[in-house]
Structures are given as C-alpha cells and as structure tokens.
Amino acid sequence: MPRPEQGFATRTADRAVRWCRRRPFAASLGAAAGLLLAGAVWLAVTGVLARQELLAAQRSLESLRGRAAAGAPATSSPAGAVREAAARAAGAHRLTTGPAWYTAAHLPVLGGPVRTVRGAAEAADRLTRDVLSPLADTAGELAAGAGADGGHLDLSALRRAAPALHAASRSASEVRADVAGLPRSTWLPAADRARALLARQLDRIVPATVEAAAAARVVPSMLGEKSPRRYLVVFENTAEARGTGGLPGAFAVLTADRGRLGFERFGNDSELAEVRASVDLGAEYATMYGRHVPTGVWVNSNVSPHFPHAARIWSAMWREHSGQRLDGAFALDPGALAGLLAAAGPARLPDGTAVTAANVVDLTERTSYAAFPDTAERKAYFLDVARATSEVLLGSAGDPTRRSALFAALRGQLREGRVKVWSAHPDEQRELAAHPFGGVLPDDPAPFAGLVVNNAAGTKLDYYLDRRMEWTAGRCTEAGREVTVTASLTNRAPDSGLPAYVTQRVDNPPYRTRPGDNRLLVSYYATEGARLERATVDGRPAMLNQLTERGHPVYTVDMELSRGATRTLVLELVERPSDRPPTLLHQRLVQPLRVTARPPRPCGG
Q1: What is the pLDDT of residues 380-435, one digit of tens each?
Q2: Could you tell me the pTM of the whole model?
Q3: Which residue has the higher pLDDT, 247 or 95?
Q4: Around Cβ 407, how many Cβ atoms within 10 Å?
Q5: Among 411, 414, 396, 421, which Cα is nearest to 152's?
Q6: What is the DSSP string of 526-590?
Q7: Would you tell me which of 188, 199, 216, 482 could form a disulfide with 162, CB atoms 3.0–4.6 Å apart?
C-alpha cells in the first residue's frame, strides 16, 4: 500500500506529463485565437477608418453636387473637390485591402458585409479616379476655352474631350455593374446602407456621363462647328394637349455658327396654318392619324407622341413655306421656360411686365386669354414673350457668371423631356434618339406603358387637367402575364370666370355641353404584342379604337370630360411574361402625370 504522499506525487507527475503532451496543441489553439482576434481588431479598426474616409469623400462630392445644382459660375473649377474626394476614396480602398480583408471576404456567411465594404471602397476609388477626375479636368478646360472666346462654348475643345468623356462614361457603367453585384442583404445593416447609397449616386452619375459623352460627339456639329446651322424652335401650348405635349403655336428660327447662337425671326401659327408638308411617314402613321390631317394642319402636326414625326412635318412645312432647308427642330413649352428662367433671371416685355419662372406658365396659358380677347393681339403678346425670354436665355448663355446655372437648368429640362430635339442629320439623330429629349416612342419588346391625350374640343381647358395612371402586374398564365391599367382623368376647370375662347367647343358635339366641359382622345400605348381582354369606362364596358404605332398596340377612347368630373378607364391586358417594370411615356402637360407602377413578381416564383 503506497504512502499517501507518494500517491500524491505520482498523480501530480502524471498530470504534468499529460499537460506537457497537450501543450503544443494548446499553444497552437491559443496562437490561432490570437491571430483571429488580431484580425478582427484589424478589420474593425481599418473598417472604421475606411468609413471615415468614405464619408469625407461623400461630403466632398455632395458639396460639388450642391454647387452644380445651384449653378456655380464656370470660373469655379470642381477639380479641388474632386481631388479631395479621390484622395479620401483611395485611402478607403487601401485600408480595405490586404490579407485580413481578403480572407474575411471569402468566409461563408460572415464574409458578406466584408465583401460589400471592400467592393464599395474599390468602386468609390475607381469612380473618383476614372470618372469624376477626367470629367472635372474636361470641365475646367471647357470653361477656360469659353472664357477665352468671348463667352462662347469652345467647340474644338469639346470635340477634343470626346474620347475622355467616352472613357469616363464606360468606366462609370462598369463601376455601377460591379456595385450591383455586391451582397445587398447582409447581417451588417451599415454595410448594406453604404452599398445602397453608392448605388443611388451611380444611378445619377452614369446617365450624366452618358449625356456628356453624347454631347461631345454631337454638339460641336449641331452648333455649327464647320458650317452654319438653322433650326426651327416651336413653342408648345400645353393648355391644349397634343401627343408630344401641347399645341404648336409660336415659332422661331434659330441659327448656330461656330457656337454662336441667334434668332433670325419669330412667327405664329397663323403663318403656317395652310402649309402642307410633302413628307411620307408610312402607312401605319397614315392609318393612325390620317383623319387629323397632321401634314396639312399645323395645329395637328404633333398628334403622335413620337417627336421625330412632328419634327419632320415641321421641317417639311418650313421648307415649303420659306424655301429654306432646316438642320433640325426643337420644341419646348412654358414649363421648360420656367425652369430656364429660374437660372437666367426674368425677362421684360415692351410694356415693362416681368416674365419670370413663377409666372410664365400662368401668363401664357391662362391670364393672357382674359387680358387679350382679340386673337391678333394675343398672338402678338405670345411673340413678345418668346422674343423677350429668348433674348434673356441667349444673354445668359454668353455670360460666364450665369452660363453654368443655365446649362444645369437646360440639362434638367432635357432629362424631363420638356425640351425635345431632332436633327435632320442621321448620325446626330441616332445619338439624340437614345435620350429622353429625343422624344422617341421606342420600337422594342420591353414592357411599356404610355397614357397620351389629345384635345378634341379645341378648348384651352387642359390647363386644369389632372391625370393618374396605375399599372399593376398580375399572375402569369400560359397566355402571358396579366396586366391591369387604371387611368383616371379629372377636369378641374372652375365653374365660372373663364373667357369664351378658353371654353369654346369647335368640335360642335351633337349633345348639350356647358362652359368648362372638355373632350379628349385618350390613348393607351401598350407593350409590343399585348392583347386587350376587357375595357371599361367608369365601370361600364367600352368600345375602343385599336391600332398600332411603332409596334405598340394603341387603344383609344373618345371621352367627354365634364367640368368637375373624374372618369376612369380600365384596361385588362395580357402581355408577354417579364419581371421588369414598364418603361413609362411621360406626356408633359401643365400638371404632371401621377404614375404608380411596381415591379412585377417573377413568373413561376
């Protein structure tokens, strides 16, 4: 029997031996835990520092964006803000590279937010280095060139900038695609928010770079870099709706010669009222609109929402009337003038009246009808407004202190489609057609929804028209996806006080009407290949005229819209299956079209 102290010593020795045998494993485990802890600490520290760098870059870019929106003068170069943002973004990228970030990004589940942060930092670095820096350098060169040329745009410098702007546009699109591929819903909300913010920025930047690259390709030639150009500028009156926006009224002839703009003359619709255009827009167009005689009636020349059709008619009419060949056409409405005058400042009429951003729509589309009952006086007034505003706009374009604000406002109106552009030169027109200001009705199979109204009464009551449209995708069947379109139109004309010219009914309906009642041709442009299953107006079955324009089925109803009434058109359609929301056609009138269109659920999901 061993002594007690001997058993204790033996047990102690055995434990010591077992501890020594386990020590290498314990040491390795401890080392691994230390490395993981150190890596986690490194990720946390560098992540916080990278976030600070990205936030600083964001502040620099927001400052730059705010200056651009406010119309900073061309003499204030954006290069400093861009350099600051680029340095911060590069710092964030450096902080999120290395073995720890690479390893963590490839961990299952846990690596999602690390990949997002790492990818966002790299994207921000590329965005500032490959996109914004070249754009800022180009803007500085163009501003310097403009200042040296008496305030006019340096077309040669813009032409030289085209390759750099094209490369920046391509890089921006690539960065947006990379950001779209980053993990979106991770276990770290802060990483998800950073990715979403960067994605929203890119959604604004990419179209701007595409527009800048396109401008560098077409603006020099369109502004007469090598030979003078002549354009017809048509002012549309949206108090009486037409397909492209409003009724074509006053017009002007614009000349461009090596970047210098001027107006040769102004005229009103009476001058072109009986001119016929020798232009063939095809059998489909003739079937769709022939009864409105658009090639022989100036005020019906733009019943189609496809702006190139109207522009070609205008160009042909002007050649028939004057013998002059045009290089293109522009259209704008009082809403566009309001946006431009907000940047350029007020215009003054011969009687001293100020035409401003706040009152130009009201003056030209409402109060003028009461102030000038005589048609000739009213048309002369419209020409005075056109001349005065054009003079202010051209003056601002030549003033380096106001040019930047005016160009920013013009970009906004172009993007909204309130200013539309067509070129008679095919290579230029191909570029223009790809942008909202081209006013093109697309001829592709993508999901599409367009609500278009044409005034059929000859009133000026569309000033008071409200429009709403809801596009709802339903279930998928063997026949295709079910789609329901609900369009509501409300006539908010006042009960009294409107001049007779505003409420007059030149359509002579065979039923009794009241002052303020209106009549509209309401058309819905559907996705290519769509099939109408059922149509109702105010809940009752309706017979619609069904034709086709540029591949789109067009369903039209002749709608009497009484003063104060709301009428609702509902279309039940079957379209080819698609998971994409529709491209929307926005017909710009006084009041905006309010649209609800949610992305459909995937078929079979």
Answers
A1: 999 999 999 999 999 998 887 888 899 889 999 999 999 999 999 999 999 999 99
A2: 0.87
A3: 247
A4: 17
A5: 396
A6: --TT-EEEEEEETTEE---EEEEETTEEEEEEEEEE-TT-EEEEEEEEEE---SSPPEEE----S
A7: 216
